[in-house]
Amino acid sequence: MSLFGWQLGFDFFGTAPAASSKPSPVVSEGVQPTPPKPAAPSGPSLPLLAAAFAVTPAPADDHRPARGRTALRARTAVLYSRLEDFGLRGVDGLVLMRTRTVMVSLIGRTLRIHEDYAEAPESVLRAIVAFAVARTKHERVAAREVILAHDVDRAPPQRRREPPRPGDLSLIAQLTEAHRDLNARWFAGALSTIPIGLSGRMATRLGHFDPGSRHTTAEIVMSRTHVIKHGWREAMHTLLHEMVHQWQQETGRSVDHGAAFRDKCREVGITPAARRDVTPLEMRRKGRAG
To answer: Is the Cβ–Cβ distance between 199 and 224 less than 8 Å?
Structure first.
């Protein structure tokens, strides 16, 4: 099928596309009634390419120092020339971008590529071309695997921080000390010391363990309402729950509520479940009586 009017995009942190006609978060395809245009001429000279491309600046989430527009044009032109040598056709524009999730996308006749692929080896560039000109899902999936195998420097994620409230510093200090004591008692002091925060945005969750990434440290976040409303004993139960998740992550296990989680919860004396009822006993009794 011709590339005219196709829209293809990859979210490379998703899963492989399912065999379904419904839209997928990994690959989306749609036909637009775009009139055909003549294919881009093969092998134009480097100066002509540099002049012909309108290169847009990197997206707003680019945290690296800005580089000269001329240098970016040159990198774009060189990359386009290399891709053409490997068989790229039907693309009118090439944009180098810097994002965390989408590494390569073809929207209409514009190919967008994460800038770290500009100096990628030939095998990866050929895979990008294969993705752009693919006629079948099988060809796109095969190209995706090669593209994913090439490591790129993704922009660090941004954590949303809440402004501190009165009393937060004291509560966080107490939770940090409790983490140290529980670590010594139930985990032989093997867990790392990690930040503990408070959140007012948790409507249903009591706490959350974030394992972090290459750019961020792990942390435990507790519901401020839960700690204040349900009392210290329930807060310690939740803190231990999140520490079991921390233990899973630091010992190379999956961070989930599976069998290893339940066994460890029983070992440290807490409810081996993802959820629990924190309604005070008196209120539960009143509810049953009513």
So the answer is: yes
Distance, CA of 210 to CA of 221 (rounded, Å): 8
Count of all residues that appear for the chain in the document:
290
pLDDT score for 115: 87
Give CA–CA dist 172/39, Å, rounded: 62
- The pTM score is 0.49
Q: How far apart are CA 226 and CA 278, in angstroms?
A: 9
Summarize pLDDT for 198-237 with one digit per residue, the tens: 998 888 889 999 988 767 789 999 999 999 999 999 999 9
Q: Is 123 helix (H, G, I), strand (E, B) or coil?
A: helix
User: DSSP state, 115?
Assistant: G
Structure-derived torsion over alpha carbons of residues 8, 11, 15, 19, reported in degrees to the nearest 10? -20
Q: What single letter denotes the amino acid at residue 13?
A: F
User: Structure tokens of 53?
Assistant: 């491309």
Write down all domains in the chain, each with its CATH number in brackets.
7-149 (no CATH), 168-278 (3.30.2010.10)
CA 23 to chain centre: 20
Which of these, 228, 218, 230, lies nearest to 179 by C-alpha position? 218
